[in-house]
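Dear colleagues,

As part of the handover before I leave the project, I'm documenting each prediction I ran so the next person doesn't have to rerun anything. This entry is a single chain, and its sequence is reproduced below.
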Amino acid sequence: MEGLLWPLVGERVASWRASVSPDVVAVVEVPLLFEAGMEAVFDATIAVISDEETRSARAAARGHAAVEERAARQLTQQEKADKADFVVRNDGSLEELKQTLSQVLAKLDRA
């Protein structure tokens, strides 16, 4: 199924990016960016990571089943951090996350 879905997602993202002014920072959320090998499509990547305990608790709170099984099919948080251009920790509050992401986006806007 992923083999059918990812090309469609890639086409949709490319179409959307072509419609966005080059003067603005455009953000695309791709949950499995590195696993899909799509990082080269973007000018910069941001890995939003947290410790495994926090991730598991948040996923369980959202009703996701088989959290460990799903995580086993994904890169580790450290592997994602190693591949990303920017790393944002998401172990705190939503407000802290917004503030940190705003700082990263401001850096990208100046680039």
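The beta strands are 46-49, 86-89. The CA atoms of residues 50 and 68 lie 15 Å apart.

All the best with the project,
I.
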